[in-house]
Each structure stands twice: as C-alpha cells, then as structure tokens.
Q: What sequence folds into this?
C-alpha cells in the first residue's frame, strides 16, 4: 500500500467524520425543534380550549386569573384576567417536555458513542490491514532474498564441482559450505511452516522430558563442523540435565538463537546451561554486533531486526526470535535478550521448566 493510497484513506475518513458531525448536528436540531413544536402545539390547544369555554360561558375547572408566562396569547380584555387551566395541567406539560428532551439527549448521546466506536474499529481495521500489507511486502522481499542468495551459491558450487574447477584440497571445505547453506535453507523453511501452523492454530503440543545435554552437544558439534573454522561454538552443560517440553520446539529455539548470533557477525558463541531455581537456563553469548538495551523486547516482535543489523551477515526475515519466544512460552518458559550496547555482543537466555525426578527416572 503506497503513501498516496494511505493519504486517500485518511481523507475519506476525515470527510466521513465531518459529514457525520454535520448530520448529527442537523438531526439534534430537528429533534429539539420537534420537542419544542409539540410543547407549543399543546399550549395552543390549551389556549383554544380556554377560548371555547369563554364563548360557551362554561369555565368548568378553568379559573379566571392572569395568564401564566407559558401561554403567549391573551384571551380576555386587558386587566380583567383570563380563563386558564389549573396549574397542574401546566406542570404535567412541563414534565412531558423534560421527559422528551431527556429522551432525545440520551438517544443522541448513545448514537454518537456507537458511531464513534464503529469509526474507531473501522479505522483500526484499515490501519491493521495497511500494517499487514507492509509486513507482508517486507516479509516476501526478505524471504526471496534469503532463499535466492544461498540457492545461487549452491548452484555455483555444484557447477564448479561438476566442471572440476575446485582443487582437490578445497573440496571438503566447499562441500561443508554447501551443507551449511542447505541447513540454513532447511531451517528457514521450518520457521515458515512453524509460523503458518501458529497462525492457523494447528501447532502440535507435546509435554515430555527432553534430554538437554545430548541435544546441545549435537548442535554444537554440527555447528563447529559446518562453520569450517570461521566461527567457534563452545558449550558448558552438566550431564543429565532435562527439561519439560517438546524436543522439536526446544531444538528449533536453539537453532534460531545460534542462527541469530551468526547473522549478527559473531565469531565466538558460548552456550551455558545451568539451574535457576525450578527452571533450567540456557544462555547464548556471542561477540556479534549487539544492540541498544532499549530494543531488547522489541527484537522479539515479528519481522523486526535490530537497528545495528546492516544485513551484511545474512540478514533474516525477522521470524527467528519471534518464534523463539512464542515456542518457549507455549512450553511454560521464556526467552529474553540483553546487550551492553552496539558492538559489545549480546546474550539471549532461554528458560524452561526442569523435568521432575520421577520423570527423569
């Protein structure tokens, strides 16, 4: 949605709001006039009735007195008093006018509230649709870039291997580089499928003990192998440490935390698992670009990247950290971020519930 369309929508909203205000004022004026007109008609009927009684010389319950200020016509010669209905009739007429006025004011107030709520909801809907369109545009651009760039590299690598242009001593390193790109593409597709399942409400829920130590060791070994010396991954974790949750979700969270460190240009990444009360805490320290402390919570929003991320180290679509927090909270845990500032690295901490002793046995 471009800026011109956005301005047009707000102009339409502004015109509709002005039109609504004008119609409301016109209607309120018309209703007030209707109440005043009814009041005046009833006064006129009383005056006509008084005149008829004078003509018939049959005052009945009417009394001869000065004309009340609520009746605007003189029915008798000046200074001789006039034939008027009892005061209770005028009191009842005043009460009728007050009830009608209150009813009109209440209806107008309720109408204004309902219309304002309807306009507010419509405005939020349009603004949400605009934001969604912008996010989808950004998302498709990032996904296209993140899928096309590794595929182009893989294609060039395979062509070079096929034509024998890669020296024998470089083949192992080039193959590891290709495997790393394939793994990156696989994790990107996995994140997209996970996000889609979350959006559709079809996310599978599993609650079981997960052996954390073997999972972390396998991830670190695999990462060190595929990094071919460009990055180093270290691990500190006690054997036998277990958490409650879903094995695939825990693995996805850890993969995304390590991917995030790689995208931020980290050369050294340290994983440290420890006990924190009834929880297990896994800290992922890196020496990458870091971020301003004020952005810590904002990083976990969908399609958001740090202001220090120039995209030179792989960028990303802005789903990894969002999925980390969503998946962790589904398992009763959480993920938080901290950094001393740009250029000073970052730490992402994962908390998960410890599996009980009965479950471990």
A:
């Amino acid at each position: 949605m471009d800026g011109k369309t956005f301005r047009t929508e707000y102009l339409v909203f502004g015109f509709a709001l002005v039109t609504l205000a004008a119609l409301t004022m016109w209607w309120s004026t018309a209703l007030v006039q209707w109440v005043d007109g009814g009041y005046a008609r009833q006064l006129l009927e009383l005056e006509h009735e008084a005149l008829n009684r004078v003509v018939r010389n049959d005052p009945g319950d009417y009394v001869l007195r000065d004309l009340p200020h609520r009746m605007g016509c003189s029915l008798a010669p000046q200074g001789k008093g006039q034939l008027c209905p009892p005061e209770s009739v005028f009191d009842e007429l005043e009460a009728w006018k007050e009830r009608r006025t209150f009813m009109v004011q209440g209806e107008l107030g309720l109408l204004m509230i309902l219309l304002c709520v309807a306009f507010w909801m419509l405005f939020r809907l349009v603004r949400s649709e605009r934001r969604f369109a912008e996010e989808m545009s950004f998302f498709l651009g990032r996904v296209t870039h993140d899928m096309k760039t590794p595929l182009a590299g893989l294609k060039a690598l395979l062509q070079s291997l096929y034509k024998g242009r890669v020296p024998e001593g470089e083949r192992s390193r080039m193959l590891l580089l290709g495997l790393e790109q394939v793994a990156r593409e696989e994790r990107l597709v996995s994140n997209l499928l996970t996000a889609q399942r979350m959006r559709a409400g079809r996310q599978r829920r599993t609650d079981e003990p997960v052996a954390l130590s073997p999972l972390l060791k396998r991830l670190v070994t695999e990462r060190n192998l595929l990094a071919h010396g460009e990055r180093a991954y270290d691990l500190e974790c006690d054997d036998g440490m277990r958490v409650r949750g879903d094995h695939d979700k825990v693995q996805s969270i850890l993969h995304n935390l390590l991917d995030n460190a790689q995208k931020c240009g980290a050369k050294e990444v340290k994983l440290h698992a420890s006990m924190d009360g009834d929880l297990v805490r896994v800290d992922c320290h890196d020496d990458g670009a870091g971020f301003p402390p004020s952005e810590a919570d904002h990083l976990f929003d969908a399609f958001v990247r740090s202001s220090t991320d120039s995209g030179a180290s792989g960028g990303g679509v802005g789903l990894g950290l969002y999925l980390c927090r969503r998946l962790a909270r589904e398992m009763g845990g959480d993920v938080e971020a901290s950094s001393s500032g740009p250029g000073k690295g970052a730490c992402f901490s994962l908390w998960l519930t410890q599996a009980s002793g009965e479950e471990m046995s």
